[in-house]
Amino acid sequence: MKAHDGLYIDGAWRPAATTEVIEVVNPADEQVIAHVPAAGAPDVDAAVRAARAALPAWAATPPAERAARLAALRDALVARKDEIAETVTAELGSPLQFSQAVHAAVPIAVAGSYAELAATHSFEEKVGNSTVLHEPVGVVAAITPWNYPLHQIVAKAAPALAAGCTIVLKPAEDTPLTAQLFAEAVHEAGVPAGVFNLVTGLGPVAGQALAEHPGVDLVSFTGSTAVGRQIGAAAGAAVKRVALELGGKSANVILPSADLARAVHVGVANVMSNSGQTCSAWTRMLVHRDRYDEAVGLARTAAAKYADRIGPLVNAGQRTRVRGYIEKGIAEGARLVAGGPESPCEKGYFVSPTVFADVTPAMTIAQEEIFGPVLSILRYDDEDDALRIANGTVYGLAGAVWAGDAAEAEAFARRMDTGQVDINGGRFNPLAPFGGYKQSGVGRELGAHGLTEYLQTKSLQF
Ligand code: NAP
Ligand code: MG
């Protein structure tokens, strides 16, 4: 694609007030592939004003018409699916097949789900002598990360549009081209001017100006816990709604009755996909002591298959951070069974698929989010021990349980402090609520639960 040198504000690409730019780098070969504006506070202000001006008309647009725009948006994304996949591969580095199957396909499914929900959701209900109206929250600031660059945009923009909100998006500095493609699709879908606005820029400049803007009613943020905490504090001080989708350290619990080979195989694939840059990845594998050595052997074999298939990390800083965690794992006494901190390639921000055994719950690599292709295998004695370990982090975003039958796995899953659990390899469901317990976040995305985040209620008594 050709990068835009402007910002998408009030229905058109406009020059930024600043001349600062962001260099977009291909992490597979470290080449600069494009430049986009690094917006400042005046640009953010212009975008918020456009969103506020467009709000009354969009909020009053019948849900059926909002649904029609969302269906057109889904179609525009379908028409561009190859360009989307190629763009994600160029700026994030994920292998093209994964970009097609996940980075392009999932947002299409999610946009389609909100076209349907906008048409079928009850925006009014009767409660005794009251009529309860579900009205849009207002102007939404969407601040998104780079790891699933289009999915994370669509998971905010689609429900916001369905609800009748208007939006200003500040995407991650590493993946602005995918966001520009999304803005083009919104434009093609006939969404009225000002309803969706895109401001590319740096987090502490454009992101912070947007999150703190008094014209914003709700801040929806996905990213690191450190920034999420700041945004939550600022939103609290301004009495503004906030949704936070933060990190995770999810457990993959393999009960003794499970099909061990399948559980390990799927578990390793889950951690290595997208080079481990998935907030819900099952980065801690919990195995009963009687089957532990067998599981470690299976994981070593499974990880080796990814050695020449895995993409790079998104940037040099993330590679340094992930290598630091691998070195820390070794220093704290975990046993390296695959991969390691050395660079496998001369060019590109690659890290080898890495597996640690003999990891204990207190180790740094068992507690902190690494955000790279690094799996820790922990040993448990019995189910209560497994549950203590699974629940023993500050996070609670996702998880998995494997057992001989689904009922046994479900019984364990019900005791886990986490927002999503996949039972015996259950499939991704774009309508299921996604979000965190504990420090993994506040609020839910996707499906009807995700739509509710963008609505506020008004009660009329008769
Ligand atoms: P991040 O800094 O939290 O980035 C998320 C988004 O917030 C980006 O758009 C970022 O802009 C923006 N941002 C940064 N500082 C801001 C501020 N002060 N005010 C408002 N917005 C701000 O995350 P990161 O630096 O890309 O990644 C660091 C770590 O975060 C990762 O290693 C991983 O552990 C975690 N992470 C989690 C997720 C997740 O899905 N939960 C996603 C990505 C990262 P810039 O792009 O300019 O920084
Ligand atoms: Mg950052």
Automatic annotation (TrEMBL):
Q: Boundaries of each Aldehyde dehydrogenase domain copy?
A: 13-459
Q: Protein name, please? A: Aldehyde dehydrogenase
Keywords in UniProt for this one?
Answer: Oxidoreductase
The UniProt entry's sequence similarity note says: Belongs to the aldehyde dehydrogenase family.
Output the superkingdom of the source species.
Bacteria
State the organism of origin. Streptomyces yokosukanensis
Instruction: Look up keyword Oxidoreductase and say if it applies.
Output: yes
Read off the InterPro entries from this record: Ald_DH/histidinol_DH, Ald_DH_C, Ald_DH_CS_GLU, Ald_DH_N, Aldehyde_DH_dom
PANTHER family named in the record: ALDEHYDE DEHYDROGENASE, ALDEHYDE DEHYDROGENASE-RELATED
What residues form the catalytic site here? E245
MF terms per GO, please? Answer: oxidoreductase activity, acting on the aldehyde or oxo group of donors, NAD or NADP as acceptor
